[in-house]
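Exercise 7. Predict the structure of DUF883 domain-containing protein from Limnobacter parvus.
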Amino acid sequence: MEKINTNTNGNINPSNNSNELRNKSIDTFANDSKATSHSSSLNHEDSNLEQIKSSVNGTFNEAKNKWQDLEHAMLAKGQEAGKAGRIYIYQNPFKSVLAASAVGLLVGFLFSATRR
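Solution. The predicted structure, encoded as tokens:
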């Protein structure tokens, strides 16, 4: 509870109380205006953050779509290369066996040299 100012003879001094109330109101108003300006500043920062977030999300989604397109293209080219390899092996079995043997022999020599 707030103490009411009295003068020396015990009477209430209304001018002192009204000055205190006025000062408190001014302080409260100043604090409220600071809080309002601070909250509007936060709202502005929030809107900037939302814009940045939406921009980053858009860029991320675009990159993700490009990556998926690249993945599909690479898969299709790999399947075509595998198909072409199978066709070559079926048409030239002797050359394919000799080439595989040569590669195996080369790899064997490389690994045996590293073991010594």
